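Hello forum,

I keep getting stuck at the same step: I have a sequence, I want structure tokens, and every attempt I make locally crashes halfway through. Rather than fight my setup again tonight, could one of you with a working pipeline run this one for me? It's a single chain of 454 residues.
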Amino acid sequence: MARFVLGLRLLAQRDARHPEALQRLSLLSREQLLPLLGDPVLRNAFEDDMVKLENGYSGALGLGELAARLPLDPEGLGPCERMATPYVRPWPEHGPAWLWTEMNPAGRVPEDLSARLRRLYDGSIEGGPSADPVIPTPEMCRRLTRGADLLTRLLPQVGPSVLRHVSVVGFTRGESADGPLQSLSGGDPLPSAILMAPERLADPWTAAETLLHEGVHLKLFDALRSGALLRDADLSVPIPWRHTSWRVVRVLVALHFYVHMLVFQEAARQADDTIRAEFGDPPAAEVVDEVSPGTEADRNGTYGTSLERARYLAGYILGLPGDRLTPDGHRFMRWLLEVLELVHEDSGISPPAGVAGEVPARSPAVSQDAVVRRSARAMARPLPERGELLVVNTDTAAMHWLNARSWLIYSLCDGSDVRSVTAEYGNRSGVDADAARAHVEACLAQLTAVGILQ
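Reply #2:
Ran it on my machine without issues. Output:
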């Protein structure tokens, strides 16, 4: 939410044609804004515009033009979901998702919105005419809801968390380079969307696994839009169970998924009698996407389980030079490996020393007489309930998350000298003088480097 608001404010500054429409969106409440920027067409335009700004683009932007033509819906629906006929929400108690049924503009939204949505859909999957959307029957809707119910019962924290990142669920059949399409989650170009083959609804366990699979991808997609985990996301990585190599960012995404699948499998094994009586017994054996025919894994009979794949992917990431991961990336890996250790003590993955995070280089000494001031080229949005401050550099469109310590130091940079900032920080935080100086020097170096201090 905070990223959306700051992004809209930044776009309003940069879009000379429709600043009022973008500013209007930025002032909406959470309940009003999330259905709009969860909409696949609007979210795609938002992300596209943000990437343009990050890359120094100075031409026309797209979201403002769309926003100017779309009146707010009195029922709080996003523009694409207004077209859905019938309108179905599969898990209203856990999030705003709706089902891709018949898309009928019928005067509800501009006629070209349906065509835009279809173009995004076509760009997200491979296949010919067989890849058209499959309109769900009432029974399919019931089975999807049942799968979501099982997921949230089995994983009462993770389940609702991932479902909140899903805006639309559609059904389709198609082919990919690795065989028949089972399911996919839209990052680019179909944000916040899950598409799945109707056959994934055959039983509630498969439906729940599919929702978790694609939901965790969407959750991580949102996280990656808010901060960097890697410094070289385009590095190519061979995958022994697939014909094509993956970018290293996809390796990290897949590892995140496989760790969640192992958690799901362990929860399924421990499912109580009430869950089993209502949803049936979980599959006796793990169901994982088959290895691609003719690959190394196919020839050797390897990499057929989530654990084997997690071992390979984690091993690759851990083998990268330490500077390929950002500090957040190191923390992310530590968390994944801790979770993996909880469910599989014999995972066979031994993280090297330092996986818990980069050892920061000592910051260069800062003159105690230097004056530090927050940059005028920065906008901020506080999140006091989380103890965080989100700051965007309006020159680069890069966003930076400040924790409570950095937020406090940043707030003290009001034209005072470093000596005064350090003393006040020590008074407010309660740390000793040496710790206060180390904290302030490290923070000032980081904030100056990203351009939000001057």
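The first strand starts at residue 84 and ends at 85. If your local run keeps crashing, start a new thread with the error log.
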